[in-house]
Amino acid sequence: MTAGGGKELTPAQACGRHVGEDRRPRVLHVITHLDMGGAEMVALDLIDRLRDRADFALFAVLGSERRSAVGQDMAARLDRWGVPHTTGTSRGFKSGGVVLAARALARTVADVRPDVIHVHTEIPELTLAIATLLSRRARRTPLLRTVHNCELWIDWGMIGHWVTARLDYGTAVAVSRNAARADAAIAVRRPRATDVIYNGVARPAPAQQRASGDNRSAKVLFAGRLHQQKGADLLPAILADARTRTPRADVAVTIAGTGVLRDRVAAAADEAAWDVRLVDPIPNLAERLDDYDAVLLPSRFEGFGLLAAEALLAGVPAITTDAPGLDEVVPADYPFRAAVDDVPALAALLAQVIDDPAAARRRVAPFRDVIAARFSPDTMASAYLARYRALAGSGARNGAGGRAGGGAA
To answer: Would you say residue 4 lies in a domain?
Structure first.
């Protein structure tokens, strides 16, 4: 196994370090890719917050010859922290790549010898499920699954049932109550409950003085996968409707993301009266949210509305919906929320913010403390660390994971 910079793992990286007489839990995170995604951000945040109390490695199922700016930033952070990371395959997942990735994961488990495998979302779960067919160590290492969405295995129902049953020996947590219910609804051999650990959302650093006055254009941001889940198909209609509701023409809209709807959104952007620009995902977006007057989030469902929480912590109005997942993040009395798919309502709210951005910021300011108290990063990190320690202890008692056994890959 090689680290992200192409270096071989040292014995300390592969086998873990010791602190006094107590061995720190050794955790292998398995994510889809080093790129934009809520699950990926949570994995890196946990590594950052707990790297003084646990040893980590990371496996990304999908790789590419050319990483995005977000992926490059993630890899650089892992390298800076001394966390080894590798990828499974750059081949198409459906054309044999899943088997190649599963083999690579089995090798990684043999190299890292983790006390706990922490897997995030469906593609990593499928990869691990196949790896457990190939590796006794993989199937005997204690498992923690984090469920990140409230609609699971879309178009992959039978595969999802098999994977969930195959990984049913693991401990499951979810990022919201909606996600927990979705996971528990997949019938397997025994009834089970999925605990909820809300994602932690950090307060951004104090922003620099923002430009103001008549010469400053209103800035709107959509950031996310260009997919129907995120309501990306609604963007052209929302922007066109909002344009008719406000006299302001000095509006700059940034659409940051990639996905199957990119061409459709790009064609509509070319016809827009406002300055609408499509860009790649933005690295360290949470630190740059204060540049915008509004964040547009017309999602149909979310596992956890991370960007909505980040926007409110930054004091930026989020124009959002009452979608599952978002409804657990945005308080019931939040003033800039509409029903799912309600284009006129979303457009009206967006126009309202554009007309008077300062007044909109004042209206959302009281929600900063609410979000900060409910979604504490320290609370999230402590909850996961407790599970890592419990699972590592159970693996040692049962002779699984780490050096205690589990067999060769």
So the answer is: no
pLDDT of 13: 44
Contact in structure between 61 and 122 (CB atoms under 8 Å):
no
Give the pLDDT confidence score for residue 314 in this predicted structure.
94
- Domain extent for 170: 11-200+376-404
And the tokens for 94? 């459906």
Residue in 149, 110, 154, 161 with CA at minimum distance from that of residue 131: 110
At 231 the three-state DSSP class reads coil
Kindly report the CATH number assigned to the domain that includes residue 257.
3.40.50.2000
Q: Are 409 and 112 in contact (CB under 8 A)?
A: no
- Model pLDDT, residue 21: 38
Same domain? 248 vs 132: no
**What is the count of structural domains for the chain?**
2
- Domain assignment present for 6: no
Most confident of 186-195, 211-220, 347-356: 347-356
Residue 206 covered by a domain: no
Residues 109 and 182 both lie in one domain: yes
Q: Judge if 108 and 231 occupy the same domain.
A: no
Amino acid letter, 389: R
Q: pLDDT, tens digit, for every residue of 328-376?
A: 999 999 999 999 999 999 999 999 999 999 999 999 999 999 999 999 9
Between CA 131 and CA 138, with CA 136 as vertex, the angle to 5 degrees is 45
Phi, psi of 8, rounded to the nearest 5 degrees: -70, 145
Measure the N-to-C terminal CA separation of the chain; round to a whole number of Å: 13
Region for 209 from its dihedrals, namely left if φ exceeds 0, alpha if ψ lies in -120 to 50, beta otherwise = beta
pLDDT at 3: 39
User: Burial level of 12, CB count in 10 A (0-12/13-18/19+)?
Assistant: exposed
